[in-house]
Specification:
Elements lengths: L12 E7 L2 E7 L6 E5 L13 H6 L3 E5 L18 H12 L4 E6 L1 H12 L4 E7 L8 H9 L10 H5 L2 H6 L1 H15 L15 H4 L6 E6 L7 H8 L6 E5 L6 H4 L1 H12 L8 E2 L1
Parallel strand pairs: 3-4, 3-5, 5-6, 6-7, 7-8, 8-9
Antiparallel strand pairs: 1-2, 2-4
Helix pairs in contact: 2-3
């Protein structure tokens, strides 16, 4: 696996948005094209998308990312009050004047992207969810996914948990850069997750009406393909895509393919119930 150079970034504007109890940092490439909002994983921030920012922008999209509370350049959450993730996202959408847009959420960011899609389906052109439990609270689902995480799992290094063994063995420099961004994003301390507007159980998830693509890697320690299939069974119209030799961060491990597939989906391509890349 030859190292994939991080491309030069497209110039973009930066700003801050005050929300109740905090302040969010965001960047925005601007432009008249369709808007795309990227919602980062728990180990990242608005810095997590260097492989996507210039590619999506040069494809004609207005690309936007923000750091959630406690992540790079955004203020930490108030003690005991992390805020509602979808509410913060909607505040940013309103601040930027986005009428309709594509939404892409990765890992923990997929919780808030899913919640947003259920709350505001008419605002979305599409929904892409990468390697995310999607905030689902069904007891049997939580039992099964909990079996994947033995005691001590959460204390393992983020790069071990989120990058596949194949990538870490073959791309030392890429692993180092991923770790550097994660460390900058978290500032050396754990960041609590945010709240959902309400629980996401199977009946609520089944009301999701937005055109959706679910993605994961076949070496994802959190969300292996059987869990993706379990989720997809409750979304009859959702396509799925599984990346071979990829872990929890396919957008980083397989950026050319990931970007190509997401751009295709945004352009109207349909994915089958299960496809591999």
């Amino acid at each position: 696996m030859a190292p994939e150079p991080i491309p030069a970034q497209v110039p973009c504007g930066e700003g801050f948005l005050d929300v109740p109890g905090g302040r969010l940092w965001f960047w925005d490439t601007g432009g008249a094209g369709p808007a795309v909002v990227l919602v980062h994983p728990g180990s990242g921030s608005a810095l997590s998308w260097p492989y996507q920012q210039p590619v999506f922008a040069r494809a004609g999209y207005r690309v936007i990312a923000y750091s959630r509370r406690g992540h790079y350049n955004s203020t930490p959450p108030e003690p005991g009050d992390p805020g509602v993730g979808a509410a913060d996202l909607h505040a940013l959408v309103e601040h930027l004047g986005l009428r309709r847009f594509h939404l892409l959420g990765a890992a923990l960011g997929g919780y808030y992207a899913t919640d947003y899609a259920l709350l505001h389906p008419r605002r979305l052109l599409s929904l892409v969810i990468l390697s995310s439990f999607m905030g689902i609270s069904d007891p049997e689902y939580l039992r099964i996914t909990g079996l994947l995480r033995p005691p001590g799992f959460e204390n393992m290094p983020h790069d071990f948990l989120e990058l596949s063994p194949h990538y870490r063995a073959a791309n030392e420099e890429g692993t180092r850069k991923w770790r550097e961004i994660s460390q900058r994003s978290l500032g050396g301390h754990p960041v609590p997750g945010q709240n959902l507007s309400e629980p996401i159980d199977w009946p609520r998830l089944e009301t999701l009406s937005v055109r959706t693509l679910l993605m994961t890697g076949d070496a994802d320690l959190y969300l292996p393909p059987p869990i993706l299939r379990m989720i997809a069974a409750h979304l009859p119209d959702a396509g799925t895509l599984i990346y071979r030799r990829a872990g929890h961060s396919a957008n980083w491990e397989r950026p050319p393919e990931f970007n190509h597939d997401v751009l295709g989906f945004w352009s109207g391509a349909r994915f089958p119930r299960e496809s591999y890349r």
